[in-house]
Design goal:
The protein is an alpha+beta fold. Helix content is 41%, strand content 14%. It has helices spanning 10-15, 47-60, 71-81, 95-98, 103-109, 124-138; strands spanning 23-29, 34-41, 66-67, 91-92. InterPro entries: KDZ. Pfam families: KDZ.
Amino acid sequence: MDNNFKATSSNNRKLNQRYAENGVFSMGCARHGIPERLYNISGGEGFKYAFVCVNHALASTPNVNVMYDIVCRCKNRLESTFPQLKGSSRYAVTAFHAYAHTASCQALFHPRYIDGFGHTDGEGCERIWSFLDKFVSMT
């Protein structure tokens, strides 16, 4: 494994032709912290990866709750794309990332303020990245 990989912008990626992707997007169970899908990001993180993840989750279960770092920005678009989410799903910004949002956003989307989320923080994939970073730096 190469520990020199850094997720960078497309401009920086052009300078270094070594990697075709510039990051990884993941989907996992927010409650249990288990990653379910990983996607290579080749053009910057966009809503499209979140939409692919929601589409994948809806294929196996009719009702999903969505936790995403910027769910506050894409909730309406998610519901217009996937009408089955309207009224039956809850949305939360992952706990760690919520503190970078405005107070009004936190009041609406922080998982501690939404019934049913309990102490779920949605940061399981971040824990995986942290572990892998430590593991890779040891090799």
